[in-house]
């Protein structure tokens, strides 16, 4: 028994017996291959600044709260010291990200200018270096020479390739704005770092117990760290559970160390 099929030109043809089954099997194989494809990381220009500023903010602020609580200070002391430290660290983090991001892009631009001059004035040695690099990576001499000859026709592409292949530096982005990284880092630090302090604000009308407020700060910090851990896992394509557990564990270790130090100093110094 034969079946009808339409080819790519719209013509109807007869399928041989079993041909339709083979096509379906091939489609199933393709589906299996696609399911085995690793997940792509979550892309975003400013996502890294948000996640890592948030993680640092929560751990830093929660550790400060732990040390203050171990010293048996009041909620007012926690809020004053907590927010003062949060704003100061946020400004420092944001400015540091702005400086480092701008410097990184400036270094890449300077390195590209040097590489471009070398390619323009000493093309033969530059091509030989690239040829040797490809050979070290496993290319045959013939294939490496072919690739280098093609790159030699396009100077700008050759410059960028030499930067990445030989120096491990990505080409600079002309439209890059480092102030965005700094501003986002500052905002993320303030936003996420406020999470541990919210307990001392929200619970003011309900209780005067410093212990309950501290436990609330622990819960809010744990939830915030877990959410940021999941976000980090989404970015790099890792396990959500594993990333959340590691992030929470990091915060717990830092806070425990701060609490222990605060308790020790309180009892030693009186």
UniProtKB/TrEMBL annotation:
<keyword id="KW-1133">Transmembrane helix</keyword>
<protein>
    <recommendedName>
        <fullName>Vacuolar iron transporter</fullName>
    </recommendedName>
</protein>
<keyword id="KW-0408">Iron</keyword>
<comment type="function">
    <text>Vacuolar Fe(2+) uptake transporter.</text>
</comment>
<feature type="region of interest" description="Disordered">
    <location>
        <begin position="1"/>
        <end position="40"/>
    </location>
</feature>
<dbReference type="Pfam" id="PF01988">
    <property type="entry name" value="VIT1"/>
</dbReference>
<keyword id="KW-0406">Ion transport</keyword>
<dbReference type="GO" id="GO:0005774">
    <property type="term" value="C:vacuolar membrane"/>
</dbReference>
<dbReference type="GO" id="GO:0005381">
    <property type="term" value="F:iron ion transmembrane transporter activity"/>
</dbReference>
<dbReference type="GO" id="GO:0005384">
    <property type="term" value="F:manganese ion transmembrane transporter activity"/>
</dbReference>
<dbReference type="InterPro" id="IPR008217">
    <property type="entry name" value="Ccc1_fam"/>
</dbReference>
<feature type="compositionally biased region" description="Polar residues">
    <location>
        <begin position="1"/>
        <end position="11"/>
    </location>
</feature>
<keyword id="KW-0472">Membrane</keyword>
<feature type="transmembrane region" description="Helical">
    <location>
        <begin position="211"/>
        <end position="228"/>
    </location>
</feature>
<feature type="compositionally biased region" description="Basic and acidic residues">
    <location>
        <begin position="16"/>
        <end position="25"/>
    </location>
</feature>
<keyword id="KW-0812">Transmembrane</keyword>
<keyword id="KW-0813">Transport</keyword>
<keyword id="KW-0410">Iron transport</keyword>
<feature type="transmembrane region" description="Helical">
    <location>
        <begin position="183"/>
        <end position="205"/>
    </location>
</feature>
<dbReference type="GO" id="GO:0140315">
    <property type="term" value="F:iron ion sequestering activity"/>
</dbReference>
<comment type="similarity">
    <text>Belongs to the CCC1 family.</text>
</comment>
<keyword id="KW-0926">Vacuole</keyword>
<dbReference type="GO" id="GO:0030026">
    <property type="term" value="P:intracellular manganese ion homeostasis"/>
</dbReference>
<feature type="transmembrane region" description="Helical">
    <location>
        <begin position="240"/>
        <end position="261"/>
    </location>
</feature>
